[in-house]
Amino acid sequence: MGFLHRSWNTGNLLVLLGTLALVLTFVWPYLAAERVARIESWAERISRALLQTAERTAVAVDEPDAGTTFLTAIENAGYADRLSPLAPPEGLDPGIYFEGKHYYYAVTRAAADEPGAEAPLEVLSWPRSPLGPTRTVFFFPARNKPSYTHNLRQHYAGLSRVPHAGVARPQVEGDAHNGSYRGRDGEHWIVLPPRGNG
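^ that's the sequence the OP posted. Answer follows.
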């Protein structure tokens, strides 16, 4: 009895709590970073699937109520299950908008580079909340390399700070070949490395 009483005195409890707190300070950042990486990986894969679907199908991005039809055309049902069609927010570019757990997605067309040319398809995905857990914005353009930004200037988030079509394209054509470039929105965009279709 005396041994148990001595081993769990206030000092020992404080040492135990301090040790647990110290362990938590080392483990928590790892767990948080792992969660952010998992969320961003899903957003990247879904964005890629949306662009592939837009290129493969004949769904017009400015067609009313095209979101539900578009979802059924996505080859990976797991991606489609994570999205809900969203009515295009007022004042935004024509397009097909989706809402996910942590991200919004838009399938739009940027302005054509030359008169008479077809407006290029693109997919933008941005965080639903400015409070996290992630800040990264993804850009998947047709016939060009995808990229992302850490979103430090524009703070795209929610439906009040939505990236418009074309803002993630390079200010100077050809800049994207260097691995990163300054976008038309002033953000620093980084070209994504090639990945499989998964």
